[in-house]
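Quick start: read one record
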Amino acid sequence: MPSKLITIPLFETYNNLSGRIPHIQLASWPTPIHQLNTQNIQIKTENNLWIKRDDLSHTEYGGNKVRKLEFILAEAKSLNKKAIITFGATGTNHGVATSLFCTKQNLACQIFLFQQPVTETVRNNLKLMQVFNATLKYKGSLFLTALSFYIAKYLNKFKLGSKDNYYLFAGGSNVAGCIAFVNAAFELKQQIEQGIMPEPSFIYCPVGSSATLAGLTLGCRLAGLNSQVMGIRVAPSHLGIIPSCTTKTITDLMKKTYRHLRQLDDQIPKITLPEIHLNSKFYGKGYGTPSKEGSEASALFSTKDIHLEPTYTAKTAAAVLAHCNREPQQTILYWHTYNSANMQSQLQKADITKLSAPLQKIF
């Protein structure tokens, strides 16, 4: 991977961006879109449910993080950075993807971690981050983890840390990561034009930080799609006292990304930025805590060989199924962001004795 040279749909439309926005190819695009056969699924939809298979973006580790990392790691390397410093929960998919692709780009990776409810996914992701040579620093609470990250970042800002470090917000949610999903919307536009699927009325995606929802919302507007992007909040709205997953934080990232793109290419039109749609009704009892609706969605999707996990995708799929039941004649696209690559061979390489004592207790 990747098997062939690809083009960047956003750059095809706005040529001035090519060469001005760093990019490296990590995966194969576009990811496929499938119409989900809803036979035996207990919903009323008239076969109008579609799925965007970002889980198939890479044979080693798929999912939406790879999209972001193509732009994020390219930006880091263009700045001559040697290490990525980021943070997330003990079962962070972002941490797994970042550590894997950092190794492929000869970048070090350090991840501050906070505790989340322990599931098989959490244990497996911890093993994978260890296998992919990430330096894991367990901080316990979400507040202390975020605080540790921001202290390190601001010490660096005032030249009290290494100049080699690139500080990356949880989930890869920065402007570079957001541009990746602006580009993803243009990719979708091309697939619609090719007749792969009709233009969806609604696009559903999970929201753990901001970039996926912000990028798709902005991208759909710039690409001329009328689809309404619905983000399902699956993470805390605040990291301690710091807002991280709110309508305002997502809107702010969208605005910042739009300004950046306009600065790079004045051919990008002046637009009224669209409204962010963030739904918190499926969050349940907390981050990483399975919900009844999510578990039911996982069981239903598994009959179609679509694997969901309880933290992000199951809760989003539950929202999708509820919408399908409520308005069965609308065309709905579920953007599947979870990795579906088989990781068993990598998991067998794990040596949990190399983890710190608090992380070993998870096992």
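DSSP finds twelve helices and twelve strands in the chain.
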